[in-house]
Amino acid sequence: MMYGYEWDTTTWLTYTISILPIILIGLTVTLKAAAAGFAIALVLGLVFALLRRSQVKLISWTTAFIVEFLRDTPLLVQLFFLYYVLPNFGIVMPAFLTGALALGLQYAAYTSEVYRGGIEAVHHGQWEAATALNLTRLQTYRDIVIPQAVPRIVPAMGNYLVAMIKETPVLSVITVLEMMGLANMIGERTFEYLVPLTLVGLIFLLLTLICSAGLHRLQKALPKAGIPLR
Amino acid sequence: MDWSAYLPMILQGAGVTMTITLASIVIGAALAFFFGILRVEGGPVLSKIALCYTEVFRGTSLLVQLFWFYYALPLVGLSFEPITTGILVLAAHAGGYGAEIVRGALSSVSTQQLEAARALNFNRFQTLFRISLPQAIVEMMPAFGNLAIETLKLSSLVSLISIADLTFTAQSIRNLTLDSASIYSVTLLCYFAMSLVLMVAIRMIEHVVRRGDVFPRSAHS
Fold first, then answer.
1. What is this model's ipTM?
2. How far is A74 from chain B (nearest CA, A)?
3. What are the structural domains of chain A?
């Protein structure tokens, strides 16, 4: 029994139906972790992207190194690092927050590249035209660059969100009870792993298919010419 | 902490990680070409099968796949060592993503090239191996490079099905010494170094592919 739901292992069908409510509770945790992680990644990624464009070589190189390091090391080890080492510095967080932070950090490295690519893809003639029209740096970014960069950035960000949802099961190793952690716990108690794991796999497949379909529609709906901020 | 005692363990773990990664990349690349070509050339039935393969392995989480096969394979009478299961699942996962790369690159070959091949009376195999693939493989290389790094990073997950790779070794050393900061820093640096080595190796392969030695155009050109 878990969260007040009793499981019934008579047949695989009754078993599936009886554990579905427990797995769905796990699904909400999975989605919350992905949402929190993605929010961190969006903000931190932008910070990384802007720091990387800095004129000061020391800042841009340090940022480039940090981004490269985060991109080239496994999420699992970063997660262990945060989970076991942060408390040494007096930073004690709930496992859920540590997990969201780890997801956010790893994906910030990815999203910073998306921001950078989006900004750099704006044709340099546009920058020159903005200079010729005597626009300030703020005006150039707000009225010229960002509106054109957004339609390029959104689809790539969506792909990373889907990828992040699929990586949340890793958080189960630091005791976050998301879908797969729960499926494994049910398996440990009933000695029947396949049904809960298949169920979780199918839910992930369904989630991914829905998200990709949604992204496809979003991508079509985005105006190619850009999204005016004002 | 005294590193001399633990260094051999770490190196051994790194060796296991590298073995798993390389084996998965090689098997994964074979799967990627097989299913990617099926997607494009397979006709209505076979391309649907290839589509199912890519969707299942891309759409479900790798960790779920690892545990699923870890528990499922013994039930159908296939009891492998955990390391074999780990390599096969990681390879199938990479193959799913790789097949999409192969499909994308093959479909980006311009239709004029295919029309020209047809005009020259090339059959489907000749068109694929002499026209499409030699051009497409150059387009695939950067994406395959990213996939290889991704595979190295994801290989850390096999530690969770009791394979003594670098991450698993780091966990055991931490449990012995309780010095999390040093051991995880060293582990992260190890992975970073391995990524860099892998990147250099990929650049070299890319260089060879660009020169066109993989699919020689013809003997007398």
1. 0.89
2. 4
3. 12-221 (1.10.3720.10)
